[in-house]
Structures are given as C-alpha cells and as structure tokens.
C-alpha cells in the first residue's frame, strides 16, 4: 500500500540520526463513525471531566506537559492525522496513577502519573500510548463492534456514563466519573496497536520507545492488591515489554530526548512542594456533596413490586421482564433502568433511583470473574459508602453462568441504608451484561425476589 511506503519515508526523515530499518504496519480498525463524531463525543465527555475532576491549574506543569504533547502531535503518522482532531493536555490533581484520552483529542494526565515516572520518556510513553488510541479512533471503533448489544445511540453512551446516580454510577469504571466504559477501557488487540503505534510516534518525536515499556513496569510495580485503574483500562496483552523493545530495535532508534532530564526533575520537585494530590475517594466525596440529587433525607413512597411481569426489548439482542408496575425511565445510554413510579430522581444532569433494576452492557475481557471485579472496583470508587455484604455466588443469569454479589450502600436520595444486588454474565463478544437491583434495606426481601426473577428470565440472543 502506498501509505505504508510513505510512512516509512516519513519516519526515516524524522529520525535524522538513525536508520528506520523496518516497523510493524498499523491499520486502524473498522469504524462506522465519522471523525467529527469522535470530536463531538470527546468534547461532551471532556466538559464533564472538567466539572468533576480537580485540575491542577499550575502553569509551569501544564506548559511542560503540553510541550511533550505538542512534540508527539507533530510526530503523528500522516495516515492517522485527522484535521478535525484537537489534542489538548490537562493535568489532574489526583494521586492515583492514571491518564486517559477522549475521542478527538482531549487528554487528562493525573499528577500521580508524573510523580511516579522516572524520567520524561516515561511520561511521553503514557501520552504516546493514549494518543494512539485517539488517532486510531479506538473508542468509536469499539462502539462499531458493540452494535449487537447497543442500547441507545452512541451519543446516549456519554449521557449514560455521566449520570451520577447511586446505581447508575456502577458504569463508572475507569475513574471516579463514568465516561470510561466505552472510551477508555480497551481490548488487548487495541492495546497492542496503541503500544506499537505509540512506539512509532515516540521514535519520530525523538524519544526511545522503550520508556513506554518501562512506564508500564513502573505502573505494575505500584500495583498493590487492587491494581491501578490504568492497567484495568489498558490490560497487558502479554509480553508487552518484549514486543515494544523489539519494535524499538526495528525502528533503529539511537537518540533520546529523555537523556536530558533537567526539566523533568524541576517539574517533579515543583509537584513535591505542593500540598498532596487528592485521592479518587476524596474527589468522589466532593462530587457527592455538590450533587443536588445526593442531598439525602428525602422521603420516598413506592408501591411494592407487582407479581405479574411485563417484557421489554431494549435492544435486538435482549428481552427483559420486570414487575408490571415498573417502567423504563430515562438515564443511561449503555444501560436502561426500570423503576416504579416515584423511585426515579433527576436534577442538573444527575439521576438516581431508589427502587428497581438497571440492565446494561459494559466492556469486558471475556473473563467473568475479572470483569465483575473491575466493575465492582469502579462502582466502589464512585460510591464511597459501598460495601460488599455477602460472598459472590455462582448464579444463573439469562440461562447462562453468572455471578451475583450482594452489596450495602447508603442512598443518595433518602440518606437511608440501601440494598444492592449485582448480577453479571458474559456475552459472546466478551462484553459483560449486568443487572443491578436497588431497594431500601428495609424492603430488601420483597425486592430480592423480583431481582432474582428479572435476572433469571432475561433473554439474550447473541448466538
Ligand atoms: Zn491502552
């Protein structure tokens, strides 16, 4: 293909002091969306991110990160340059090691990531990796693949994701606000692409791509029992370190900007002098306090679940039967909520329900246990009061193997203890179907019977 030859020439020109002997050819995955859709989705999500995440707003640090970003932008291969994309770089005053980039270009880099890095090359490595997901348009490509289970339009995915309701925020994987489900959690196949393409971008920008592999090791080393969110959004396809090293050798890199570490050291020292970054939990608590729905103390009276059931078909692939006095309410885009009258609350872009079920699909890896755990982790991050109250049990969900976990929470609406049951099963493409039942603790028994019926009777036609 002519674009391939062009790229080789391009890389060879960029690496003035080296010879580009060969490189792995990257082809962006099929995508039914227009690049302008990426831009729109990313901007909506970025606005939400700016509202819910504390920006560091330090000119010196911002300028440093933007400088690295601009060098990488200038090194984007011609075939992946989309004129409508606009790459921006913001530093979040958050402690956890994480970074994410939204479709069309907005990137957010946690302060904790910069603090954990050993040199500028490692920061550039994470940024080149994130930018590669953007330029290869992985967010919308993933959405293209997800069609059989799509609930609502792609614009609705963002809406669903930013809904900050009690159980609605279970889709908040990836960070303490919820836009990650479709745009920030990637398959191993896309991870490999972002690693290899990120290596090309790094080399063309004058960085040794091996720093990217080293940064993944740095992140893994900080793992702990939960593992950093970054690794759950960007799973290691296996032998990551080896193939990045091999790609670097093929690229024949022999210059490295990161060898001059002065500016990086000054920025790290500057961060050290500031008051500590906020944890995800602190940020989440601040957001809960600001959220109008979450004022608590509201009295809610709802009639008990009907013994008769009514069936809805939210997508071609799903049929859901719920008590006949529940109806679908607005809310998630990647999910749909069924609630009785008087149990659903909405204000200023936030929503919550006190009784009912939410049925949704989230990105998975094909491993039911791991995917359920990562869903739970995201849920816990955005719901600081949430606790697991029973052991996870094998259960039948829509006639297939599933898991049910019981949880205790405090309702944002009423301020009272809340019972939550979460059930999951895998879909054929490896994504995760989940059913979340929510009821006040005092009504848990009556509702648990309804939740059980809903998850057992759900009909999935994905094969
Ligand atoms: Zn990734």
Report on the structure:
The chain is an alpha+beta fold and 463 residues long. The two termini are 36 Å apart. The relative contact order is 0.13. The protein has helices spanning 2-14, 35-52, 59-73, 111-116, 120-135, 138-145, 154-162, 180-183, 188-204, 210-221, 229-233, 240-251, 262-272, 280-290, 368-382, 444-457, and strands at 88-92, 99-101, 106-110, 309-315, 318-323, 326-329, 335-340, 344-347, 350-353, 356-362, 387-388, 393-397, 400-410, 417-426, 432-440, 459-460. Zinc ion binds at residues 129, 133, 186, 191, 194, 234.
The distinct ligands, each listed once, are: zinc ion
Net shape: globular
Helical content band: 40-55%
Largest sheet entry:
8 strands, antiparallel
Radius of gyration: 23 Å
Short descriptors:
disordered N terminus; single chain; binds zinc ion; 8-stranded antiparallel β-sheet; Protein Transport Mog1p, Chain A; globular; 463 residues; 2 domains; alpha+beta; 16 strands
Which helices and strands appear, and what pairs or packs with what?
Elements lengths: L1 H13 L20 H18 L6 H15 L14 E5 L6 E3 L4 E5 H6 L3 H16 L2 H8 L8 H9 L17 H4 L4 H17 L5 H12 L7 H5 L6 H12 L10 H11 L7 H11 L18 E7 L2 E6 L2 E4 L5 E6 L3 E4 L2 E4 L2 E7 L5 H15 L4 E2 L4 E5 L2 E11 L6 E10 L5 E9 L3 H14 L1 E2 L3
Helix pairs in contact: 2-7, 3-5, 5-9, 5-10, 9-12, 10-12
The structure holds zinc ion.
Produce a short descriptive summary.
The chain has 463 residues and is an alpha+beta fold.
């Amino acid at each position: 293909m002519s674009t391939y030859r062009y790229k080789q020439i391009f890389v060879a020109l960029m690496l003035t002091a080296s010879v580009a002997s060969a490189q792995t050819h990257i082809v962006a995955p099929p995508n039914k969306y227009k690049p302008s859709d990426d831009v729109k989705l990313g901007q909506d999500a970025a606005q939400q991110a700016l509202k819910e995440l504390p920006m560091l707003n330090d000119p010196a640090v911002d300028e440093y990160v933007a400088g690295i970003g601009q060098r990488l932008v200038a090194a984007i291969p011609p075939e992946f340059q989309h004129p409508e994309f606009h790459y921006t770089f913001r530093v979040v005053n958050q402690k956890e090691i994480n970074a994410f980039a939204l479709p069309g270009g907005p990137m957010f880099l946690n302060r904790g990531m910069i603090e954990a890095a050993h040199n500028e090359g490692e920061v550039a490595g994470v940024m080149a990796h994130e930018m590669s997901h953007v330029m290869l348009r992985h967010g919308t490509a993933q959405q293209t693949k997800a069609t059989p289970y799509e609930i609502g339009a792609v614009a609705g995915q963002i809406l669903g994701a930013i809904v900050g309701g009690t159980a609605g925020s279970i889709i908040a994987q990836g960070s303490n606000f919820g836009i990650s489900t479709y745009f920030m959690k990637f398959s191993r196949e896309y991870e490999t692409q972002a690693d290899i393409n990120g290596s090309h971008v790094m080399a063309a920008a004058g960085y040794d791509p091996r720093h990217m592999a080293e940064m993944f090791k740095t992140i893994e080393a900080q793992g702990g029992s939960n593992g950093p969110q970054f690794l759950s959004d960007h799973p290691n396809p296996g032998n990551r370190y080896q193939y990045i090293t091999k790609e670097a050798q093929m690229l024949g890199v022999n210059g490295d900007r990161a060898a001059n570490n002065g500016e990086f050291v000054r920025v790290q020292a500057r961060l050290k002098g500031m008051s500590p970054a906020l944890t995800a939990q602190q940020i989440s608590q601040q957001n809960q306090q600001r959220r109008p729905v979450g004022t608590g103390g509201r009295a809610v009276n709802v009639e008990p679940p009907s013994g008769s059931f009514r069936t809805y078909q939210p997508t071609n692939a799903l049929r859901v039967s719920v008590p006949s006095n529940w109806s679908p309410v607005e809310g998630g885009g990647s999910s749909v909520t069924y609630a009785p009258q008087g149990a659903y609350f909405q204000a200023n872009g936030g929503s919550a329900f006190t009784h009912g079920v939410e049925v949704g699909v989230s990105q998975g890896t094909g491993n039911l246990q791991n995917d359920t755990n990562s869903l739970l982790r995201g849920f816990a991050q955005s719901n600081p009061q949430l606790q697991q109250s029973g052991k996870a049990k094998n259960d039948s969900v829509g006639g297939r193997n599933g898991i049910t976990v019981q949880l205790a929470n405090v309702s944002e609406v009423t301020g009272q203890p809340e019972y939550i049951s979460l059930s999951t099963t895998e879909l054929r493409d490896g994504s995760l179907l989940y059913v979340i039942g929510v009821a006040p603790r005092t009504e848990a028994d009556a509702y648990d019977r309804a939740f059980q019926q809903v998850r057992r009777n759900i009909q999935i036609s994905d094969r």
